[in-house]
Write a structure and sequence with these properties.
Leucine-rich repeat, LRR (right-handed beta-alpha superhelix); elongated; about 20% strand; transmembrane; 15-stranded mixed β-sheet; mainly beta; ATP binding; binds 2-acetamido-2-deoxy-beta-D-glucopyranose; Plant_RL_S/T_kinase; repeat; nucleotide-binding
Length: about 450
């Protein structure tokens, strides 16, 4: 009672001193903000020190924005920290009193702990909720999120949240972004997520402890741009349905326990820029359609159990945009197809630690954009083609651990790489290794 009288008085006073006709900060909202401030025991960002005086709208309260219509209601609270600065404390339930709030961002405060207050469910106008990079504990509050009917962007990434994914999220209409990366969440993707908003563009569940299957219904989220399930314990094969995601630009399934073959249907991801399925248990050969994706520039299939030869790139038509190709640490056999030279944009090629045989195709000397080449740990024979000396832009190369013989191209950068890059071969010679013997070498160490 006394509190409301005081608030009323404060309003009248500020109204009296305010100029320009706009209503200053609503006393209710001001009280809610001050209660939030009181829940923060230490603030090294300096933000909350600016929260003084009566007018939280026009009084220079950092991070607070009010309605342009001059109602004095707070519509946005955006608190973001700089590196090594932080706030320590908990989130006051009073945040739920900011009933006109549309944007709530509390980011990278590092030491704000405790649970996400249930009172946030009263924020019916909230469109964006970013509580990322804090130290929040407890569960992802499903019943609270279910009541936020205006919510479009949700990020609770980089906290210490536990428990499972709330089934309720599947029924929040209009969700465009879900980012729960970097928590300690367990369990599978609830079947209620088959009803997830078709507007969903961004789903990041990476760096958690999720397990179970990658649901086939994710392939129905036609507007997905990014799907990141990396660094979890998802198992079983990749559903072929994902190949229907025409707008997807980023797909990361790295560091899981995914088995089975790579579905050739993934070749239908025509907008894809980056495909990372490294560090899983994939078997079978690399499907050729992966190299027909016109916009793909990064493909990482490292650390699996892939077999078979590398595909023939000559009829791949289009994969011309590929810049990074990593198929290292598999059991890929066959030869390096000379058609690999048709990947003109390739900057980084890693075929290391496989079972590749045959010779290095001389045509690779035409790959003028190559900066990084690793073919170590295979069973490649013959010479390093003389005209590799044309590949002047290569900054890192390793031919180590093959069955190569003959003279190393005696031009930079190849004669300047460390000797280790050529170690454990049959009979390579020339700088940086000892000179080739002129005559008498049976095994090919000849300069002429
Ligand atoms: C995997 O996720 C955990 C959090 O669950 C994180 O601590 C770890 O650094 C992540 N690993 C990598 C390689 O990103
Ligand atoms: C994909 O993106 C285009 C434009 O970028 C958009 O018009 C379309 O609605 C999106 N969704 C699908 C399913 O193609
Ligand atoms: C592929 O993923 C592995 C980790 O699994 C990583 O070490 C490597 O750098 C990645 N390659 C590229 C080209 O990004
Ligand atoms: C490199 O040499 C091979 C065989 O000697 C030849 O077929 C190829 O066209 C040469 N490439 C370049 C770029 O000179």
């Amino acid at each position: 009672m006394l509190r409301s009288l005081l608030l009323l008085l404060a309003t009248l006073l500020t109204a009296a001193v305010s100029t320009g006709g706009t209503t200053p900060c609503s006393p209710l909202d001001r009280a809610a903000l001050l209660a939030f401030k009181a829940g923060i025991t230490l603030d090294t960002t300096g933000i909350l020190a600016t929260w003084s005086g009566d007018d939280c709208c026009g009084g220079g309260w950092e991070g607070v924005s009010c309605a342009a219509t001059g109602t004095g209601r707070v519509v946005a609270l955006r608190l973001e920290s700089q590196p090594r600065r932080y706030m320590e404390g908990t989130l006051s339930p009073s945040l739920g009193d900011l009933e006109f709030l549309e944007f709530l961002v509390i980011r990278d405060m590092a030491r704000i702990g405790g649970a996400i207050p249930e009172t946030l469910s009263r924020l019916a106008r909230l469109e964006q909720l970013y509580l990322e990079g804090n130290a929040l504990t407890g569960i992802v509050p499903g019943s609270m999120l279910a009541k936020m009917s205006s919510l479009r962007h949700l990020s609770l990434a980089g906290n210490r949240l536990e428990g499972t994914l709330p089934p309720e999220l599947g029924s929040v209409p209009g969700l465009e972004q879900i980012n729960l990366a970097g928590n300690r969440l367990v369990g599978g993707v609830p079947s209620s997520y088959r009803k997830l908003s078709s507007k969903l563009a961004y789903l990041d569940l990476s760096n958690n402890l999720f397990s179970g299957i990658i649901p086939e219904f994710l392939g129905k989220l036609k507007n997905l741009l990014l799907l990141d399930l990396s660094n979890n314990s998802f198992s079983r094969p990749i559903p072929a349905s994902l190949g229907a995601l025409q707008n997807l630009t980023d797909l990361s399934l790295s560091r899981n326990k995914i088995g089975g073959r790579i579905p050739p249907e993934l070749g239908g991801l025509r907008s894809l820029n980056s495909l990372a399925i490294d560090d899983n248990m994939l078997t079978g050969s690399i499907p050729k359609p992966l190299f027909t994706m016109q916009n793909l520039w990064r493909l990482n299939l490292s650390r699996n159990k892939l077999t078979g030869p590398l595909p023939d790139f000559s009829d791949a038509g289009v994969s011309r945009s590929l810049q990074w190709l990593d198929v290292s640490r598999n059991a890929i056999g066959g030869q390096i197809p000379s058609s690999i030279a048709e990947l003109h944009e390739l900057e980084r090629l890693d075929i290391s630690r496989n079972k590749v045989r045959g010779v290095i195709p001389a045509a690779m000397a035409t790959m003028g954009n190559l900066r990084w080449l690793d073919i170590s740990g295979n069973a490649i024979v013959g010479r390093i083609p003389e005209n590799f000396s044309r590949l002047a832009g290569v900054r890192h190369a390793s031919f180590r651990g093959n069955r190569l013989c003959g003279q190393i191209p005696q031009a930079p950068p190849f004669n300047r790489f460390p000797a280790a890059a050529y170690a454990h071969n049959l009979c390579l010679c020339g700088k940086p290794l000892p000179p080739c013997r002129k005559i008498g070498s049976v095994s090919g160490g000849l300069t002429t």
